[in-house]
Hints:
The chain is of the alpha/beta class. The chain has helices at 70-84, 100-109, 119-126, 135-147, 169-175, 205-212, 227-234, 249-253, 276-279, 285-298, 301-312, 318-328; strands at 62-65, 90-94, 114-118, 151-153, 163-167, 192-195, 219-222, 240-244, 256-257, 270-275.
Amino acid sequence: MRLPRMLALGASTLVLLSACSAGGGSSTPTPAATTAAPSSVATPTASSAPASATPTAAPPTIKIGSAGFYEAKIMAEIYAQALEAHGYTVDRAGIGLGARAVTNPALESGQIDLEPEYIGSDLASYEPGKQTGDPTQNMDDLQAVLATKGITVLPFSPAADVNAFVVRPDTASQYHLVKLSDTTAVQNQLKWGLATDCKTNPVCAAALKSAYGLAPTNVTYLAACDTPMAAALKAKTIDVGELCSTQPDIATNGWVVLQDDKATQPADNIAPLVRNDYLAKLGDIAGFEAILNAVSAKMDTTTLTQLNADFAVQNQDIATIAKNWLAQVGLVPAS
């Protein structure tokens, strides 16, 4: 479920980490050339991917997919445009596919070849309880899982987005809420907005119940990192909303993010997942990875939050947001 900043969340805001998940792939062995050091953050390159990253022959079309919320779509579009700038043809039919129940099988079956993912939550979706607050450990463990499925996890971005349990200031004041454990005694006096996959997500319902004793009775299930959850919280149809920590609505409305005082949520840095059978078709695997790594290295949490605001607050379209950012950081020529 697992959006720094040109919009700060506020020094008083305490963030609850939550998770996002995906993965899968074929049983194709990992090509030796794709074994990038998975335990490192994406390494910055010069102003753009090196010239050698541009294929000398037209590579096969790459099918890019993503989760359904707008941040995931923005990241997918950024990777897509970066690849197109180096001669790749991109099939975008999979962008915005939906929750992991849809995207995981899509990547595993080859319906899509590449997807931006949240490494802590993705690890939790495969091995619940193994996720940690250390992104390097999460990436290493996730790669170990996905290696058996024919999928490579490329180096993760400094940008991290985690689900945050958020309340309005009036609710925080009325019920004396600062941390998530403060909601336990009053949980059934509150109207909760939880992610649509919360019941089956190991870092949502299961984590809330085991760590906090939370099993509220008044729950509305909505898209956690998208406009509907924020709109419901603003309209007071819910009192506690599960948003993403990089969602601009938090700062815009002065909402309070409850501290995850039991540390139930993993580090959720973003990394591209790519099928090994696609990599095997490339004449220049290292060049392909360099393009994606250059994007990941330049994306941090503050920047990601601002790009989300460009969409949610400034009403810019996703393609324009991606194009402008890539040109700004020198990864594609300015038009």
